[in-house]
Design a protein that fits this description.
265 residues; alpha/beta; Rossmann fold; 8-stranded mixed β-sheet; 20% strand
Length: 265
């Protein structure tokens, strides 16, 4: 598996992708990526199919249908109601972290099924924050979310283990794997305020009074202190690339690059 860091390599990540066929996107994210892909599919005369298992998120994209060839589909990512070998490109947009690692292979087998031979897969998500000064606030945020998840008996979806994802891709048969890291977005005062408010709201549901008090006072204070050190960023994003073996996919250079697709979580 090849890898690359930040810098000039970002502009190369989406080159060689043609949008005149069918692009299938799993996950909506902020919607910015969907808007760009919709525009490119329109310019190329292709089709864009966006899937999600959350109806309220799909509704946020309804206005995009006036701007390009966008179709919305309510579906589970591991059980897509699509025929075999119909997609030229599949994009997993920020939802791999929601899939248990034991389910990676099942998901990738479903992607393999719908991709044409030679079709491309792109996975965009976040990794666990690096042990760097600028990641301290995000690390505290993740620690608190995991503590809340344990207290409430809920799973957490915070990051992706790239090596485990790559191993699952290889096990299914994907080839030409490569990964590139992108810097996390800058954290702002608005991010801190929203995060603190969300923590306090979730902490109010914790039944254990000691844990609830720790979350509202001690843990929130640690988060604020880390943020006030300045220069804080979210965890690094990654784009993991893979190809289904074969030679039937479309092959035209894209008119835009990963720089255009970079978006915060």
């Amino acid at each position: 598996m090849t890898s690359s860091g930040n810098g000039h390599s970002e502009g190369e990540l989406w080159r060689g992708i043609d949008f005149s066929g069918l692009t299938v996107v799993l996950g909506i994210g902020t919607g910015q990526l969907i808007a760009i892909l919709n525009q490119q599919a329109h310019l190329a005369g292709g089709q864009l199919l966006v899937t999600s298992r959350k109806p309220h998120l799909l509704k946020t994209l309804l206005s995009f249908q006036e701007e390009g060839p966008l179709t919305l589909l309510l579906a589970h990512p591991r059980h897509l109601p699509l025929i075999d070998e119909c997609a030229d490109l599949v994009v997993i947009n920020g939802i791999l972290r929601e899939i248990p690692e034991s389910g990676f292979r099942t998901l990738f087998e479903e992607i393999w099924r719908i991709l044409v031979p030679g079709g491309n897969l792109r996975i965009s998500d976040v990794i666990e924050p690096l042990q760097m000064d600028y990641n301290q606030a995000w690390s505290e945020r993740n620690r608190i979310v995991r503590k809340l998840g344990e207290a409430l008996g809920r799973p957490t979806a915070l990051s992706v283990d790239i090596k485990k994802a790559a191993n699952a891709l290889r096990a299914v048969g994907f080839a030409d794997l490569g990964v590139s890291l992108l810097p996390g977005y800058n954290l702002t005062d608005a991010w801190l305020e929203d995060t603190v408010n969300a923590i306090r709201m979730m902490a109010s549901r914790v039944s254990n009074p000691q844990v609830r008090s720790e979350l509202v006072h001690k843990d929130v204070n640690r988060l604020v202190s880390a943020y006030k050190k300045g220069g804080q960023r979210a965890a690094e994003r990654f784009v993991l690339r893979a190809k289904k073996v074969g030679n039937l996919s479309l092959d035209m250079e894209a008119s835009f690059t990963e720089d255009d697709l970079h978006e915060p979580d």
